[in-house]
Amino acid sequence: MTNVVDPADTEHRFRRNGQDLRVRVVGLDEGGERGHLLLFGAVADGCLVRVHSRCLYGEALRSQDCDCGPELDKALDLIQAAGSGVLVYLEQEGRGAGLIAKALGYRESERSGADTFTSYETLGYPADARTYLATARALADLGLRSVQLLTNNPAKVEALRQEGLQVTAVPLRTRALSERARDYLEAKRTRRKHWIPTDAAPWALDQADAASPMTDEPSAVDPVVITPGENIRPRPGPGAAPDLIGA
Ligand SMILES: [Zn+2]
């Protein structure tokens, strides 16, 4: 973890959705993982954690081609509702390859019809160059031994688990904003084993419903408890089994 100032000296008010929270900021720049940890409220064992990679298009520009913006919004909504939690915001645009690579990948997918992972590989980029080990260490350095990780991505769970953290994975449900976003989610599910609902998937809703705000969405499916030494496998709760695809 890298920080030139005491995190306590960064504490300030943060207002979103009409609600104030205290936030502290910790820098991270280690092993190719660069970004910040935003510590909301009183961070303690079992708190909500979102490890999020930067997506200029989806977040700042509100592109409807991916689910990054809705995922970030949903994660922050949940952290605010809980009154505390950690957002790790990583400068890993384009799954770690950068914005130019991402643009080349989009263009290649447009040309060939292949999914985003295949397009990256066609262009000579890794399908996903991101790592999370320094992030995991930074979380452990905060004194955390257990977290509720807001993610659909088994690779993030595994990285935190390797650092000795007990992880309860809480898959995030977001509503696909377009046909292309739906295809992207499907590629993440089939190519990277993300835990994304299938039968009851948000994108199965009709178009009119899909265009409505996401305020009525369930916040998450049943949590998955994963402790060091266990295989990563979602634990479907009652009625949730058809929704989840395991690792
Ligand atoms: Zn995105």
UniProtKB/TrEMBL annotation:
Keywords: GTP-binding, Hydrolase, Metal-binding, Nucleotide-binding, Riboflavin biosynthesis, Zinc. It is an enzyme of class 3 (hydrolase). It comes from the Bacteria. Pathway: Cofactor biosynthesis; riboflavin biosynthesis; 5-amino-6-(D-ribitylamino)uracil from GTP: step 1/4. Residues 228-247 are annotated as: Disordered. Its EC number is 3.5.4.25. It holds the Pfam family GTP_cyclohydro2. Its cofactor is Zn(2+). Gene3D superfamilies: GTP cyclohydrolase II (3.40.50.10990). CDD domains: GTP_cyclohydro2 (cd00641). Residues 38-168 form the GTP cyclohydrolase II domain. It catalyses: GTP + 4 H2O = 2,5-diamino-6-hydroxy-4-(5-phosphoribosylamino)-pyrimidine + formate + 2 phosphate + 3 H(+). The keyword Phosphoprotein does not apply. PANTHER family: 3,4-DIHYDROXY-2-BUTANONE 4-PHOSPHATE SYNTHASE, GTP CYCLOHYDROLASE II-RELATED. NCBIfam families: PRK00393.1. This is GTP cyclohydrolase II.
